[in-house]
Amino acid sequence: MKRAVRWTAGVCAALSIAVASGCGSGKGDDPAPRPHTELITALSGVRDSFLTHYWSEFGDVAGVRARGAAENPDPLLGYGESQLVQAAAQLHDLTGIDPLAARTALTLGQPPEQVGVLNGTFDPSAIGAKLQKLGYKKRDVGGGEAEWVIRDNHAIDANDRFAQLGILTALNVIRVSPTRVVYAGATKDIDTKTLTGPRPLSDAFDVGAVADCLGPVKAAQIGMDINTSPKLMGIGVQTSSPQDATAVVCMVTKSRDAAEDIASAWPGRVQSVTSYLTNEPWSKVLADPKAEVLDGSEHVVRLTARPLGKVTALFDAWRAKDLGPLLTGTRPDPTVSAR
Question: 0.70 exceeded by the pTM?
């Protein structure tokens, strides 16, 4: 287990010092710059609000695309844009928007109040022409963006072309600029809950601390899971190839002692805990567990391991409320949703 000196403003650190050495928090050291990752860049493009703060899913679409073969789709492809990915080819033809050609993708909030963001390079004129043919009405919103609305307030039309593709409300409202596409079921979710707020989401102390701790992930989820912990946590996958992946868990804790307890228990839990989801020991799912406590006011603990099979194993476990026993020793409550 390691303790790491932490960047300022809620940022994780690269310099690690063994906990057993009893070294301090690194006061007096020159602060290292905040890491530049696609995750942090994506989170900096939206605002901190009640909708965005407690759940976000991220995908480095271009990074995943670059490492995967077309004939063998990467299991991380589609993170951050799960509402659209299954219909990506049809959406490109219908709207001029290709979700799989984005640079990064975000999904923020919980259904039905979810907002999606695609970052990349887009052609607003071509997209607008296609949306107009589908019945969308245009509204100029300034800043080089145009908003296209076909319905609002999460209304559903079962006969809609998108509904036939399994997309009920996600594309009710589409805001387009040359560098991003924002989509949602209601204009208020975009205007008041995603693009308006006191600070970028990346600068919220706990969200920023978790995002910085996760590092250069290809996919990530950041949110609350009361089945596991009372504070914010995140899961991500760092990988340079399908055969070389690291699963990362970053948890905000109430104190350094709490963080060190989780870090100390992590290797043993990987070896001894059985997954309720797969009914097999986590030692058959994860290898080489390591932990470090990151200095700073958020008391972040960083847990890593090497996936032995599915790189999405921890994402799947979070969805199934199966992380409590592994991360904190708590048993899941099947009556409470993780998110």
Answer: yes
